[in-house]
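Input (structure):
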């Protein structure tokens, strides 16, 4: 008949192909990628970590944990505008996590966008009324703006809930 015989791969070729497929699977496995990025960050390789996480996000643009790591790396690299954009993308996907607007507020504060930072910290507190760090950062903004009564009220609240933390912050 007119069918050509298909050559079977050798054992070595099959093993090479299996190794390639394994590497490809690992490159898009979220746990593997996040672990790799964590090691890169611990080694002080934030730029490499960012490239790794961005490569992964090409395969899964809405992977929240990867987006959170990306935003944190961007913040650590001083790329606050990019971090804010990433936190905004995360909020579209996960709008119930108080740490997302809190961390966005941190990046906004570093950009000196205090009004936007205030709004972000308020959103964090709406989602988690016990978010001490958001209340502290909000108090700092109120102090900066001259709203000392509001700032002092927040600091008193913090002191009542966590005297040790308040003592560390205020001394």
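Output (sequence):
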């Amino acid at each position: 008949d007119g069918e050509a015989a298909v050559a079977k791969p050798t054992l070595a070729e099959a093993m090479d192909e299996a190794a390639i497929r394994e590497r490809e699977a690992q490159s898009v496995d979220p746990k593997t990628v996040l672990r790799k990025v964590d090691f890169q960050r611990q080694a002080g390789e934030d730029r490499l970590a960012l490239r790794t996480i961005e490569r992964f996000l090409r395969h899964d643009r809405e992977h929240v944990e990867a987006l959170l790591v990306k935003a944190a790396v961007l913040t650590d690299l001083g790329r606050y505008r990019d971090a804010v954009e990433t936190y905004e993308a995360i909020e579209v996907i996960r709008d119930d996590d108080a740490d997302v607007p809190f961390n966005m507020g941190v990046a906004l504060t570093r950009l000196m966008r205090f009004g936007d930072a205030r709004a972000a910290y308020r959103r964090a507190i709406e989602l988690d009324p016990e978010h001490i760090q958001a209340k502290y950062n909000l108090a700092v903004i109120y102090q900066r703006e001259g709203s000392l009564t509001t700032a002092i009220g927040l600091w008193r609240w913090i002191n009542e809930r966590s005297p040790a933390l308040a003592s560390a912050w205020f001394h």
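Notes: The first helix runs from residue 11 to 28. The chain is about 75% helix and 0% strand.
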